[in-house]
Every structure is written in C-alpha cells, then in structure tokens.
Amino acid sequence: MHDFPAGRFAVWATAWLTGRTSYDEALDALLGDTAHRVAGLPGVDEAVPLGWALTALRGIGERRFRLVLPVPGDVRGLPAVPGLATLALESGQAAVGERLAVVPEAIGPEAVAWTAFPLDGAPPVASPVEGSLRAVSGALDLAVSDAARTLAGLDLARWNPEVPTLLAGLARTTAAPGLPPDHDPLALSVLGRAQRLAKVLDLAMADAPGAAVNHAQAAARDNALRPLADAVREATTAAYNVVPRN
Known about the structure:
- Strands 2-1-6-5-4-3 form a 6-stranded mixed beta sheet, with helices on both faces.
- By secondary structure, it is of the alpha+beta class.
- It has 9 helices and 6 strands, in the order ααββαβαβββααααα.
- The protein has helices at about 5-15, 25-30, 50-60, 85-90, 135-155, 155-160, 160-170, 185-205, 215-240; strands at about 35-40, 50, 65-70, 95, 100-105, 110-120.
- α8 runs antiparallel to α9.
C-alpha cells in the first residue's frame, strides 16, 4: 500500500489554514509516530520541526495545498522552480500551495525529511482540472474491469495468485483512515479503493520468483496495467484534493 505524506500534508494543512480543524489535531495527524523536519523555508537557515513550519504557513498567507503525483513525462501541477520537479519525481509526490511547495523523503521507517521550495517569482500554475469524485470512481471501475479481463487472459494467477483475489474483493467498501472528520465520504471510499488497487499493481508488476514470464507476456501485462495505474493516480489525487463545502 502506497503512502502519501504529501497527501496528508495537503489535506491537514488546508483544513487548519481554513479553520476546519485545530492546530493540535492537524499536527497530531501529520506526525503520528514519525519525526518530521522541514528544510528550505524562506528566511530560515536550518531544518525546523514540522509544527514550526505549519505555523509559518499562515504567516506567509497560504490558504490551500494540493497533492501532485508527478510521473516521468507528466509533471503538471508543479511550478517551474529549480530542483522541484527533479526531487518530486524521485519522491513521487509533492504538496503545492500558492507560495510554497514541499516534498517529503522518508529517512528510514521513523523519520521524514521535507524540502520546501518558495514559489516567489515562479510563473503561476493553473490549478489542475480534476474530475468529479463520481467520474473518477467510475473511471476506476472501468479500468479495473478492463485490467482484470486482460490479466485473466495472461494467466496472471500463475505469476502471483494474490492478484485475482484482491481484484475480486474490490467491491467491498473500505474507507481510507487518517483524514479530517469532515472529509467527503465518497473521497474516503475512492481513496480506500485506490490504495488497495495500488497494492494490486505492486503485486502484478512483480514477477514471482521462478515464474516463466517472457518479454512479450511482460509487455502485455504492463500495457494492461498502465490505464489502471493512471486511474489510481487520478483517483488518489482527486480524493486528497477535494475540499468539503461549507
């Protein structure tokens, strides 16, 4: 299951900055049992605790952050700031505001190092056009159905027997935990499904030891999974970035 610290940061920082949650609730949700330090904040020469950085956001006038999940060839949503795209691609994620972008990097299992990129002087980036949650959920269903048929034809069960079982269980509703209590219920459901599908993708892309997978089979598998990976990425982004209506 993929972890998105930048998604949690975008959700909870936005909730705090817009008055939907308290500072303590936001900080507790972001920290958990992990140590977080933030480097690169404007006017600060050293790395500081995440709580310090969260307070500084209000001082510089931030109001909202969005999760961006860049992949090679698609870095939409990332401002043109030196070093940002490279680090975000390595991490696979970034949280982008109007005045600051932050990128997380796991330092072992108990620490996360964040790099902040001030956006002063950067060309404005248009907010991504995100589909409605219902449209994203439908696209996820379609991608799952198409991938399941193709993978069945490729006899993926022989490569990794866990994959068909996981695909068959996707009809169960599972909400993603750890988000603000007023977060959209459909977004929680969509994110829960996307997280399970991310696990399917990881298992399906990993050739089981000793499996007889030739180049043509691997290429067919990768082609079948690409639309599913795109749908999971879009669903994850939309679920984290939805802001509850007042």
